[in-house]
Amino acid sequence: MLIVASMLFTVVIPLFLYVNMVNSVYNKAASEMERFDHERSTERLSVVAYPVENGSKLDIFVLNGAGILTEVARVWVTEVYNRTITMYDRSNMSASELVISPAGSSTIHGIDVSRFGDVKLLDVKVVTRRGNAFPSFNNPIFVVGNQTLPFNIQLSLYTKDVVFRRNVIVTSVYGNWMYSMYIEIHMPGNKGCNVFSSVGVPDIGWYRVDLYTVSGVLIHTAYAEVTPSVRVPWVYMQADPS
Amino acid sequence: MKRRGVGKKGISPVISGIILMATVIVIGTSVWAFTYSVGSVLQRNYFEETNAEIIKLKERFTVENINFNSSTNQLHVWIYNYGSVTIEIDVYVLRNSTDVGEDLNGTKIPVNEVALKTIQLLQPVETSDILIIEVLTRRNNVVYAEYLVP
User: Can you give the pTM of this predicted structure?
Assistant: First the structure.
């Protein structure tokens, strides 16, 4: 009886307590991972990438639509024509721009895409530290940029054409400056595409932007004002004939 | 005629009591020691098994990006470890359930790191082929990704 009692108190009960303790450690880990998975599933980022500095760099606007803090770990930029992929991480980006508070937003500045050349079709994707990937809403992004004038007008043209050909004429409203350019891209697939182009302009003031088909039909006219405070105004145009 | 044993003295009750007690103590201690050691082994085994399960539970990884280089027939796969333990991975590439490439080096990926695996495909692939990338850890967690060859 004494032996049974001693075994009960020195072996069985400690074993029972130990198993319980180990089980609670397992349950704690399981519950932590469950919470982690839940947090991961609630991450919601809205991403819009757009070219700056004559198309040599990208700025990426990220809106955190979730109720938790989110940290951007990497940005992937794929050049669709050549299938060239570049990864940007903390070593290429400013750390303060990568942490986005709940329901907050941040702009990641200056992603260098000059290595893809002047004319490129880019696919942008943002990956969070929790392993979620969010593509840019306006993928793919066609960028034309080779102007070196001191001011710029950024054109944002949305098209569903597979083969996109347009003429753009930019004229100074109060001056005699004019610039014309031809844009041609071949889309991989038949989805819509955002075509971005940067037009260098020589001075501040009002500019008129006319968009034509190759056969000379005017599709859209827009105006933009370059001011000392807005040195790079944006012009959004529906690029397909109605 | 004398009966055998008659006239000899027996063991005193004290000695017999001591012998009995010693026997009980020895046997009891042996049983207790055996039980204790079995209990210890059970504890250690249970801890090791549970600890392995906890580590397996903490593995999290994803195929973050895939790119195919048609000139070299190589598939580049980036794998991100977003869990809380280091993982060791093997990668298989399947087309129509057939293995067309693999990397079985058991590459270690530390926490919050990305690893690039370059896999030489054994058969040529064509545009619009669908490749299934299977990433298997040494702890038997698995992640699949699909890739449409551009």
Answer: 0.78
